[in-house]
Amino acid sequence: MCSLCGVIGGNEHWTDAVARPGVFTRNVERLDRRRERARRVSAANSVLSAFGMSLSDWQGSAFVLATRTGKSEMIEDLGHLWPAAERLSGRLCDPLDPQLIARMEETDHG
Q1: Under a CB-based contact definition with an 8 Å cutoff, are residues 33 and 19 in contact?
Q2: Do residues 64 and 58 make contact, with C-beta atoms less than 8 angstroms apart?
Q3: What is the CA angle 67-73-79, rounded to 5?
């Protein structure tokens, strides 16, 4: 998404489900949006575990990214996840790395 859409679209990140007229979402109920957010955290943790990190929801308004050694950083939305992961770990964190995807698929099927 271009930055202009982010400015005129409100302060929500495009990955967040919101209940607002004109915004696509299948989850208009607050509980459903929280459930969807929890599923996104779970999916992110599936990938982050390969980098020794985990993500948790912070009161439905932000996320906390943490390493196994105790370093942590609060991020506003999932758009900030991978740059923060690289800062905390001090290495490249590519969730689309073919070797990582192959290992994850192997784990899911094995």
Answers
A1: yes
A2: yes
A3: 105
- Going by pLDDT thresholds of 50, 70 and 90, the confidence category of residue 12 is low
Contact 83, 65 (CB under 8 A): no
Report the mean per-residue pLDDT for the chain: 81
| Size of the chain, expressed as the number of residues it contains | 110
CA dist list (Å): 60 to 1, 11, 13, 15: 22, 14, 13, 13
Which of 67, 83, 18, 30 is closest to 56 using CA atoms?
Answer: 67
Whether pLDDT at 90 is above 60:
yes
CA distance 49 to 91: 14
- DSSP secondary structure, the chain, as one string: --HHHHHHT-SS-TTS----TTS--S--SHHHHHHHHHHHHHHHHHHHGGGTEEEEEETTTEEEEEETTS-EEEESSGGGHHHHHHHHHTS---TT-HHHHHHHHHHHH-
